[in-house]
Amino acid sequence: MIAARRGERSPEFVQSLERGLSVIKVFDAEHPRLTLSEVARAAQLSPAAARRFLLTLVELGYLSGDNGVFEVLPSVLSIGYPQLSNLSLAEIVQPYLDEVAHELRASSSLTVLDGDDNIVLARASASRPMTLAVNVGSRLPAFATAAGRVLLAGLPDDELDAYLKRAVLRPLTPATIVDPVALHAELMKVRAQGWSLVDQELEEGVVAVAIPLRWRHGRLVGALNTSTHTTRVPVEQTLRTLLEPLRATATGIEADLQVYPSLYRPRPIGS
Q1: Whole-angstrom distance between the N-terminal and C-terminal Cα of the chain?
Q2: Which among 192, 219, 209, 194 is positioned nearest to 245, based on CA atoms?
Q3: Domain of 34?
Q4: Span 97-118, mean pLDDT?
Q5: Domain count across the chain
Q6: Lowest mean pLDDT among 101-105, 146-150, 190-194, 206-210
Q7: What is the C-alpha to C-alpha distance for residues 6 and 244, in angstroms, rounded to an integer?
């Protein structure tokens, strides 16, 4: 999907290969067995074209076809499984971060919770850097960052209560929330709405928005964050500008992660 949005197809583009792959892609967890007409409709192919592709894939050993019903065979994993098995979460996410950072002209990152801090696993920088240097491996206090609050809000209640009891909430700017009761209320708000906005609490002049990144069965594996410098535009407008592209980015990443039945074993958040 990313490559398709970056530019027009080259003269070397092989449309028949695209169509063949589109036939494989219509099979998923909700549609493991399909008839010829169902494949043709889902792949937007004529029945005759769908039939040729299906029978070719059967002959190659990627599909089975009994009584007019087709099903993907495990051998289809040989197409990409070895390459996917070597990808880390950061490597999967990085192209998406690059694209959303370019689209928004705002720095974007993937972070996970590590102790009481969130640590940056992947990052794409905007042309205009923040005063505070943030790079891959940087540790930031979870309580004062949009990504950190998303991750804290995803903790079980007992772990969150333990965090609030031990955390040292120090003012990083005049706007930083340092009262545990107020922070807890903010985290409950983040949990309910599914996103966090931090306005100049980590660094003056910087506003950040973050949303959760989830793996299979809704498991929280990290937070996607984008940050930009404040302008004369109301913060609510900045939220509207940043939130939807960030959500679209998360949707794309989560779709990619669904193909990892056992390859990607995310580190439990809060461990």
Answers
A1: 33
A2: 209
A3: 13-79
A4: 88
A5: 2
A6: 101-105
A7: 19
